[in-house]
Amino acid sequence: MDLYDVPKNRTLTKVWYNPEGHHTMPAYLNSLNNFILRSRLPADKDHQQYSISVSSHPYPGQVEEEDAMVKGLVNTLVALCVLTGFSIMTASFVVYEVQEHHSGSKRLQHISGISEPFYWTINFLYDMALYLVPVAFSVAMIAAFQLPAFTERQNLGAVTLLLVLFGFATFPWMYLLTAIFKDAEMAFISYVCINLFVSVNTIISTSILYFLGQLNESDESIQAVYHTLSHVFLIFPQFSFGNGLMELARVDLQVQILKAYGVDAYKDPYSADMLGWMFLSLVLQGLLAFTLRLLMNKWLMRKIRSFFCRGKVEPQKGTWDEDEDVVAEHRRVYSGEADTDVLQLSQLSKIYQHLSKKVQAVKRLSVGIPAGECFGLLGVNGAGKTTTFKMLTGDVSPTNGTAQIRDQEGRMVDIMDCRKEGINIGYCPQVDALDDLLTGEEHLYFYARIRGISKREMHRVVNYLLRKLELGYHRNTTSENYSCGTRRKLSTALALVGSPQILLLDEPSSGMDPRSKRHLWKIISEQVKGKCAVVLTSHSMEECEALCTRLAIMVQGQFRCLGSLQHIKNRFGSGFTVKMYLEMASCNVDTITNYMQEHFPSTYLKDHHSTMVEYHVPIAPGGIADIFDQLESNKTALQIKHFSVSQTTLDEVFINFAMGKVGVETVHSEGSDSDSLDSFDAVDI
Ligand SMILES: Nc1ncnc2c1ncn2[C@@H]1O[C@H](COP(=O)(O)OP(=O)(O)OP(=O)(O)O)[C@@H](O)[C@H]1O
């Protein structure tokens, strides 16, 4: 029978073989094929010479596949390690900006002439340049270990681009958050946590979906969810970066497996179905966040605010507790009489808003400060002095009102625009805004450069200020090793760079020894004499008495009195302070109080500690001699050991305001002139 004449659907031959023997099936098949061959041979041929041989070898691809799986796992681990390392490392770059924001150094640089967009651009360029160093090291390491997933053909270039773009996209969003952190350590931990949290969660969730999709190829919904999430998560730079590395590892696994079959599954890493979208999203994220960073600056915010609240602020009606001098200054500023003053605050107010809670830190401050005046801002802790300074330096925007400066042409310009108009403001912040790594001399050179002092002049200016502030000895020491007083001196020196027209000094002498303090007072007085307008806050009444030509005392954000030192003393410091030391702590103070009030009407007890009692005597018809007489003759009966009588000092006026002892009645009824009081010297007995 001819083997080819087999009817359809009819099996000609059936071969049974044992599947446990790997070679049985090909052996049987080969026997069958030989049988067919020989049956087809012509009869004259020797059958022994015709045969088909089959040889069986183990399949080589099986071992390689396992190898490829292990390599794929290694690549995934390498990708995760790179992602973790760079998540931590990028966070460490932005810590410096947080530190500068927190220390006030950034604000000082803005006041000295560096605009916010310039500050961020320079920092970004510097961070990127520095960031390229670890990127170069990482690329060198990857290249040295020759992991095909990251080095094959164009893959090394793609990895390098991913690393660079990760920094490009990550730094700007970190810059956006610098203001919310209170310290650099917290910022670092938060940035690392955000980076790791986002990357781990997005990558693990998409990887699980990817593998589930591979296992259930028929289930298209898993694939769809995977693709959707992979696109949505592109908004996170951490995902774009991490997933880019994982994608290279995944594709390399396929390449290695299919290589055994002679298939080249390599994909161009820059193509859209590989890392193309990831590169694009990283670039867009970087550009968007950096543009936002440039736009979200105080200058622009103020411009937007002032656009919506245009027009000069109307003077609001004085409230019950506004002093007549404060109201008069309001009127002077509003009527334009203060237009020749260098610095003009008009109805300056600040309300801090925390969720539903509002804190009115500063209320309607109006004052004009002419050139050659040192204006003192006094107040207890929390009175609003620092907030006022922050508004003057542009650190916080006023909720209402304006702070303006008169330029050389006599135009009033907003204090935020003063640098553009060539007006120099010197600022000595309450907390020293120094860079711990710079020496005193380097600080001065840095700020001299920012202020635009020419190279020729710079050396002279720096040496002059080092000499003037007695910093010569510390010129080459880094500021982290400075004592508190020396730091204050350096902060003051920085405020004096470029001979500013306006000097803002926030407690400049705190922490200085008495000799340095007096030396500083001398320097400030020289500045005032040189027609500089100085605003000074201090808790030292002695300092205010020594320097201030006019001063105001702030209570709960408001000026409670304003005028020259003498004027304030005359109005609120009338009368005498009587200080007594009693025989024993158990002596009856009420008896003494009654006695004092009987002889000197309106006398009140100011203070009482152990054996010390202090009275304020507003009216003594017989003057100081009368008080002295009365107490001396009743000293034994009242059990007084010794006592002193002095004219009320600024210190006491301040304490009276701080303790709320000067109310509206006092403000309005005690306006009588008592210039003669100052002619008494303190009498100690
Ligand atoms: N960022 C802020 N958020 C909310 N409230 C604030 C903020 N800064 C200050 N305040 C509040 O504003 C008020 C004025 O504070 P400010 O620091 O201006 O006082 P100060 O007179 O400078 O005090 P000190 O003499 O202690 O420096 C205080 O009640 C304070 O709690």
UniProtKB/TrEMBL annotation:
<keyword id="KW-0547">Nucleotide-binding</keyword>
<dbReference type="InterPro" id="IPR027417">
    <property type="entry name" value="P-loop_NTPase"/>
</dbReference>
<feature type="domain" description="ABC transporter">
    <location>
        <begin position="343"/>
        <end position="581"/>
    </location>
</feature>
<keyword id="KW-0067">ATP-binding</keyword>
<keyword id="KW-1133">Transmembrane helix</keyword>
<dbReference type="Pfam" id="PF00005">
    <property type="entry name" value="ABC_tran"/>
</dbReference>
<dbReference type="InterPro" id="IPR013525">
    <property type="entry name" value="ABC2_TM"/>
</dbReference>
<feature type="transmembrane region" description="Helical">
    <location>
        <begin position="188"/>
        <end position="212"/>
    </location>
</feature>
<dbReference type="GO" id="GO:0140359">
    <property type="term" value="F:ABC-type transporter activity"/>
</dbReference>
<dbReference type="GO" id="GO:0016887">
    <property type="term" value="F:ATP hydrolysis activity"/>
</dbReference>
<feature type="transmembrane region" description="Helical">
    <location>
        <begin position="77"/>
        <end position="98"/>
    </location>
</feature>
<dbReference type="GO" id="GO:0005524">
    <property type="term" value="F:ATP binding"/>
</dbReference>
<feature type="transmembrane region" description="Helical">
    <location>
        <begin position="118"/>
        <end position="144"/>
    </location>
</feature>
<dbReference type="GO" id="GO:0016020">
    <property type="term" value="C:membrane"/>
</dbReference>
<dbReference type="GO" id="GO:0005319">
    <property type="term" value="F:lipid transporter activity"/>
</dbReference>
<dbReference type="Pfam" id="PF23321">
    <property type="entry name" value="R1_ABCA1"/>
</dbReference>
<dbReference type="InterPro" id="IPR003439">
    <property type="entry name" value="ABC_transporter-like_ATP-bd"/>
</dbReference>
<protein>
    <recommendedName>
        <fullName>ABC transporter domain-containing protein</fullName>
    </recommendedName>
</protein>
<keyword id="KW-0472">Membrane</keyword>
<dbReference type="InterPro" id="IPR056264">
    <property type="entry name" value="R2_ABCA1-4-like"/>
</dbReference>
<feature type="transmembrane region" description="Helical">
    <location>
        <begin position="156"/>
        <end position="176"/>
    </location>
</feature>
<keyword id="KW-0812">Transmembrane</keyword>
<feature type="transmembrane region" description="Helical">
    <location>
        <begin position="274"/>
        <end position="295"/>
    </location>
</feature>
<dbReference type="InterPro" id="IPR003593">
    <property type="entry name" value="AAA+_ATPase"/>
</dbReference>
<dbReference type="Pfam" id="PF12698">
    <property type="entry name" value="ABC2_membrane_3"/>
</dbReference>
<dbReference type="InterPro" id="IPR026082">
    <property type="entry name" value="ABCA"/>
</dbReference>
